[in-house]
Specification:
Metallo-beta-lactamase, Chain A, binds zinc ion, 6-stranded mixed sheet, elongated
Length: 274
């Protein structure tokens, strides 16, 4: 008995950072669960209500508390659907609705059994602290939220993001038997191993460039960012994000004892680090 997975694409409107986001329905023998819940919008509300009319909606797993994934929580709550979130996930101050009274806070590895499928809630921190990626064991499907995207790479930076933790998450996922990834944005990813390897290589390459920048005398985050990124790839409004990404890498290298911080904004390599 195979399960069915359906993808819903919802749009964020003009004010959103993300133009579109996916959420997913898993259905088997009349029972269904949702992965993520779209934006807080009339479009999302209608979709979720239609799903709940059609299926016995048993649960909703929210990968993380960003507006493009968690916006449907108030609608799910109204329908009495059980909502699951990781216990480390923080509620951003910008959220327009209450979270805590309606959700179950879970920890790594919780397994839930439905008719014909088992969902394991893998803790995949890095993009946010309490990010989860639900994994359907029988079908080897990973719902990756913003941990792995079908195009580009996810934002990993302070305060909620952590590059060291993110790299550990990627390595953990590389060891998981995954047939296909359904991401929070874009099309499905049919070559999970290759994709995760690419992601790891991309971040390690960036790290190498940062070490090279410090070696050649760049000491501040601004200088390192200018050294590492091509000017043409970096329009003015992206510069602050690039700097925060550099900062996330520097935090990782600091935790690993490979660089040390010489002032609030300057860094040096530890002797012998190449
Ligand atoms: Zn996100």
């Amino acid at each position: 008995m195979a399960i069915k997975v359906e993808r819903f694409v919802v749009s964020g409107g003009d004010l959103s950072l993300e133009p579109e986001a996916n959420f997913y329905l898993i259905e088997s023998e009349g029972e269904a669960v949702l992965i993520d819940s779209g934006f807080y919008s009339e479009e999302t509300k209608k979709l979720i209500e239609a799903i709940a009319r059609k299926w016995n909606l048993k649960a909703a797993f929210i990968t993380h508390l960003h507006e493009d994934h968690a916006g449907g929580i108030p609608f799910l709550r109204e329908l009495g659907v059980k909502i699951f979130l990781h216990r480390d996930e923080k509620v951003p101050p910008s959220f327009k609705f209450e979270i805590e009274d309606a959700v179950f806070r879970v920890k790594e590895g919780l397994r839930l059994f439905f008719r014909g499928f088992t969902v394991r809630l893998c803790h995949t921190p890095g993009h946010t602290r309490g990010h989860i990626s639900p994994y359907v064991e029988e079908e080897k499907i990973l719902f990756s939220g913003d941990t792995i995207l079908s195009k580009g790479t996810p934002w990993v930076g302070p305060p909620e993001g952590d590059m060291k933790v993110y790299m550990e998450t990627l390595k953990m996922l590389r060891g998981l038997d995954i047939r296909v990834i359904y991401s929070g944005h874009g099309e499905e990813i049919a070559n999970p191993g290759e994709k995760i390897d690419e992601y790891i290589a991309h971040r390690l390459e960036r790290e190498k460039q940062i070490i090279k920048a410090i070696e050649s005398g760049k000491k501040s985050i601004e200088e390192i960012t200018d050294y590492v990124y091509d000017k043409e790839d970096l329009p003015e409004h992206v510069v602050p994000f690039a700097r925060l990404t550099v900062l996330a890498h520097l935090d990782k290298l600091k935790k690993e004892g490979r660089v040390f911080q010489t002032s609030k904004t300057t860094y040096e390599l530890l002797k012998g680090e190449k």
